[in-house]
Design goal:
46% helix, elongated, 10 helices, 5-stranded antiparallel β-sheet, alpha+beta, 6-stranded antiparallel β-sheet
Length: 347
């Protein structure tokens, strides 16, 4: 369109007027959008059209005409150079994205859809575009005591937070298999974060902490045991749409704040009958705001609703939060849902 507009402008205006801006804009626009071949063809087309118009007007050898032609040739060459640089940048970005995806799979792997007879779904929504992992975490581990889960949120951002995520998940997987109680698992995580804190510098070395909720789903029993360390309360969605928040009766400090006080952890037991779904999440869900500053309230939004499974529940939540915030999350969001199969379900 630019080349055609330039040709029309040159053809229907006096020779003193020039359409060079049209002809030079064409390859420059093509450079970031087209392939190298497409950019070359665009530049070549602009050069050929300029030369053709000058031939038709009989001004090929005029100084102004030669200058215009050389300008279009020069800009076309620069457009090809720009295209090469843009493609190299895209390749580096694609490589970085692949590395980030690999890091996410290594640090925060997607759990299997079924573990220990339970239906599992997990989802991570990053606030920053093209980011794959931050300070939110989740993990699922089968154990002799039942299926154990953790969802947490590390204070801070950047590589320090990612390092703490790796420490928490690694310690949880080991402790979940070895420890007999959730209380003992929590203490293992506490000690792991204490060790990690001694290797960190700056503010994180003294003020780093992780909010977390630990859950245990015994095989065969219709209950869930929870240990909450300063984290948003999980929700239970029953098969009939009833929603029950599982708030901690004894509030506790987050992990990594043992210097401020120590007291025994106490796991609390709640009903989780067949067909019910346990939803754990980070504050990226409950503190998501719309343009007026209104928070997304998962209790109010989910009450009375039913879902085919954990996967549909998390997809719905992610879509609703994106709509609520206008697509601009202020914080990362980790979601983990576990459904206890109802009697008669085909596994």
């Amino acid at each position: 369109m630019l080349i055609a507009a330039g040709a029309a402008y040159d053809s229907f205006t006096p020779a003193a007027y020039t359409a060079v801006p049209f002809f030079t804009a064409a390859p420059l626009v093509a450079a970031p959008l087209y392939s190298r071949r497409g950019t070359l063809l665009t530049g070549a087309a602009a050069i050929v059209v300029v030369l053709g118009v000058h031939l038709l007007m009989g001004i090929v050898l005029d100084v102004e005409s030669v200058t215009e032609l050389l300008t279009v040739v020069t800009v076309s060459f620069l457009a090809v150079v720009i295209n090469i640089l843009v493609r190299r940048g895209d390749e580096r970005l694609a490589s970085a994205r692949e590395i980030a995806e690999a890091a996410q799979r290594a640090v925060l792997p997607e759990p299997a859809e079924r573990i220990g007879g339970f239906e599992i779904a997990a989802r991570y929504e990053a606030a920053q575009a093209d980011a794959f992992i931050g300070g939110d975490l989740y993990a699922v581990q089968d154990s002799p005591q039942g299926v154990r889960l953790v969802v947490g949120d590390v204070r801070g951002k950047g590589m320090g937070a990612v390092s703490a995520v790796a420490v928490v998940i690694g310690a949880f997987r080991e402790a979940a298999e070895q420890e007999a109680t959730l209380e003992a698992v929590a203490q293992r995580l506490e000690r792991a974060l204490d060790r990690e804190g001694t290797r960190r510098d700056g503010l994180d070395a003294h003020e780093g902490f992780t909010t977390a909720v630990l859950a245990e789903l015994p095989h065969g029993d219709g209950v869930v045991r929870l240990l909450n360390r300063g984290h948003p309360a999980p929700l239970v969605l029953h098969a009939d749409g009833t929603l029950v928040p599982l708030s901690a009766h004894r509030p506790a400090l987050p992990l990594g704040m043992s210097d401020l006080g120590r007291w025994p952890d106490r796991a609390e037991e709640h009903p989780l009958p067949g067909g019910a779904t346990l939803l754990l999440f980070t504050d990226g869900l409950s503190e998501a705001r719309d343009a007026r500053g209104v928070f997304y309230d998962p209790e109010a939004r989910l009450a009375g609703r039913t879902f085919r499974g954990p996967g549909q529940l998390l997809r719905t939540l992610a879509e609703e939060v994106r709509r609520h915030t206008g697509g601009a999350l202020a914080d990362d969001m980790a979601l983990l849902a576990v459904r206890r199969p109802a009697r008669g379900d085909v596994l």
